[in-house]
Write a structure and sequence with these properties.
sodium, transmembrane, MFS, Growth Hormone, Chain: A, (California timema) hypothetical protein, transport, 0% strand, mainly alpha
Length: 290
């Protein structure tokens, strides 16, 4: 242990021994959080935990480009007087276009709760990667679906995309607390979840420019689908469910994160007395009016 900690007599004599390694001190919860935070501060201000935050930001950015790109591309897909007549156009009325655009959320709503439960039980990394891979592939298949199966097959692709993207937010919720200390969690969450707005802002002008370019509206789906697959590759090699399972994290940073989270048990289920919940008037009002 550091000499300053021993000399300041923060620890009782029975703990000042070589056999008490930092991991044992953390797991046994001998140290208060203030001392833990001071003990294991990484030498570098940028670490693997910041890489995870950047990857999650990229995930939400790409996820929202995949979500909204059809909203712009469908204008060129159904515009008889379009500026790019070299690509096929479809005679879909307003009701058909509305059905296509809403079909994404049919699958999205269905899988929200199961996605959160599965991600928490089996680990969010692979579920998040699989969700983005499926969504990206079916996004790239959308031009072929429109050509071969019409608007019905496009709806099927969008439903599958919605089912897969239902895993994105629950998996992000599960993995983010494992990589952020209590002091950094607010900043990390702000950066990561800003990706959804950034993806929407990014997609709109790019989709419009691509639809009017020589590549035509199909390039909208190929570009963002390809970006999604590239993100999956980066996520596979650089991400992990927790610091303990990451290959390249330094021992210093690993101890810093684990020490900060020592008193937070995310896997334990908190038992609530349902009788008290039923008697709580405010809880009932929130439940029935949300």
């Amino acid at each position: 242990l550091p000499e300053r900690l021993i000399s300041a007599m923060f620890l009782p004599e029975r703990l000042i021994s070589a056999k008490f390694l930092p991991e044992r001190l953390i797991s046994a919860k001998f140290l208060p959080e203030s001392i833990i935070s001071a003990l294991f501060v990484p030498a570098s201000s940028f670490g693997i935990r910041h890489v995870q935050a950047i990857l999650l930001f990229g995930c939400l950015t790409v996820a929202y480009t995949l979500r909204v790109n059809l909203s712009v591309a469908i204008v060129s897909m159904t515009d008889r007087n379009g500026s790019n007549p070299n690509f096929e156009e479809y005679d879909w009325n307003t009701q058909t276009r509305s059905t296509i655009l809403s079909s994404f959320f049919w699958g999205y709503v269905v899988m929200q709760v199961p996605a959160g439960m599965l991600g928490q039980r089996f680990g969010p990394k692979l579920f998040l990667m699989g969700a983005m891979a499926v969504c990206s592939i079916f996004n790239m298949l959308t031009p072929l679906a429109a050509k071969w199966g019409g608007w019905g097959l496009v709806c099927a692709c969008r439903i599958i995309q919605g089912l897969s993207q239902a895993f994105v937010f629950p998996s992000t919720h599960n993995i983010l607390p494992m990589w952020s200390t209590p002091e950094e969690r607010g900043r990390f969450a702000t950066w990561v979840y800003a990706g959804s707005q950034f993806g929407t802002i990014l997609a709109m002008p790019i989709c419009g420019a691509l639809a009017q370019s020589a590549a035509g509206w199909p390039s909208v789906f190929y570009l963002f689908g390809g970006l999604g697959l590239l993100w999956c590759v980066a996520w596979f090699f650089l991400a992990a469910d927790s610091p303990a399972s990451h290959k390249w994290i330094s021992q210093e940073e690993k101890l810093y994160i684990e020490a900060s989270l020592a008193k937070i048990t995310t896997s334990d289920k908190v038992r609530q007395d349902k009788r008290h919940i039923r008697r709580d008037k405010g809880g009932q009002e929130a439940h029935y009016t949300w």
